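[audit] Reproducing an earlier prediction to check determinism. Same input, same settings, fresh worker. If the C-alpha cells differ from the archived copy the diff job will pick it up downstream; this log only records the rerun itself.
[audit] input (281 residues):
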Amino acid sequence: MSQNTKPLDPSSSPRAMLGAELRYHREKKGMSQGELGQPLFVSGAFIGMLEMGVRRMQPEFAVKFDEIFGTEEYFFRNCEVLKKSKYPDHFAEAAEAEATAVMIKEYAPALIPGLFQTPGYAKAVFYAGLPTATDDTVRERVEARLERSGLLQHPTKPVVWAVLDEAVLRRVVGGPSVMAEALRHIAALVRSRRIIVQVLPFTAGGHPAIEGALKLMAFEDAPKLAYLQGFESGQLVDDPATVIRYELAYDLVGASAMSPEASLALLESVAEDYAHEEQQP
C-alpha cells in the first residue's frame, strides 16, 4: 500500500500534533509505515491513520514508539493527555474519527442518531439510560452530544446518510412533544438538503443489520472505518475486508428502506401525530 504523504496540520488538534510527530520520527529513522507497524502487529494502514489523527494512539503503542525512536516518554506522556475525553470510553475514539470524516453512513435501529438529536431528546435518552446519574452528569453528556452536531453546521461536509428503523420514529422518548420536536428537527435538516434520511419500515422484515447499530466513516486520506455499538460498548473496525462486508449490509438495508421523499413525508406525518397527541386534553 502506498504511503500517505499528504501534509499534516499539527495545529488542528492534539491528536494531529502527535500524529505529525509520529510521521516525523518514522521518516527520520527511514522506516515505512509497514515496517513501523510490524513490531506492533498492526498494518501500515493503521500507522497511517495514527499519523493522520484518524485513530487514537493507545498507551501500549506509545511506549513502543518511544523505544523505537529513543524519545524517552514523549509519546507516552502525550498519549496519556489524549486519553481524557468528554465521551464514554467505548465511544471516544469513534467520536474523534467522526469529526474528521468526509462521509458518514449510519443505520439506527432504536434511537435517533446523536448527530441529529435535539436537547430535549438527548436529555430524555440519558435520564432513561443512566437512571442513577446526577443532573450534572446528564447535563455534561447532553452538552457533549450536542457539540458533535456542530459537524452539520458546514453546508456540505461531511456527507451524512442515515437509515432509521421505523422503531426510531415510533418509540416515544421523552413524551409526545419531545418526539414532535425531534422529528421536525430531522425533517428540517432533510429539507435544507444537509442530510439524507431513509426510513426502514416494519414491513421490510429481516435485514442484514438487524442485530444492531452500524456507523460507516470514510476519510479523505485514510482507510474507511466501521463502528458497531451495543449496550455500553462499542467497537471500531478497520479491517478492510470486514468494513466491506458492513458496507454491503448497509447498502442492502438502504435498498429495503423507503425512498428519501417517502421517508420525509412519514417523518413529518408522525411528528404531526405527536403534536396533536400532546394537545389532547
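[audit] rerun output stored. Observation attached for the diff report: The radius of gyration is 21 Å.
[audit] end
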